Task: structure prediction
Amino acid sequence: VLCLLSAVAATDSYKVKFNVNLKRGDERSFTMEIFPAWAPIGEARFKELVDTAFFKGVRFFRVVPGFVAQFGIHGNPKLASEWREKKLKDDKVIESNKRGTIVFATSGKDSRTTQLFINFGDNTNLDGMGFAPFGKVVEGMDVVDAIYSKYGEKPDQGQIQSKGNAYLKKTFPNLSYITSVELLGAAAAAADDKPEL
Result:
């Protein structure tokens, strides 16, 4: 019975709140609902990243209005390097890349790691390229729309990987960034009830 309950719980949706510093002195939040059934491998990685506070201080480094807001390279180069080697198998695309969905970035077959993006528009052309959404913004899409976008695609991913937030703070000081991510409701209660190992 316990195994059955765990299996059912693993497919239930849950909500996650992103607290974001949009610009100096302007901290706001948005909430996503995460659906494990849409992309179970991607969702499991996302949950792992949330549980380990991976996103704290992570910048939205590629922001293209009408397309995507990309994030997920850790600000500490050592951690970024470790996670970059932990590639995921692809999920089947079940849901479409519509406005507000969250998706792992990929550079080819079975190459997902920690980089994600939120779709600003309906990018259904990404469906056939293997980009599998696993959640969507359910509150605060206006906050997502306000993520700093003036740098566009200028931040260099290689420099972010090797120099981390030191590079971004110096060269692109206005980037919006995540201050914290928290599980909401039943997911938060379940996380609190986990026994210490």
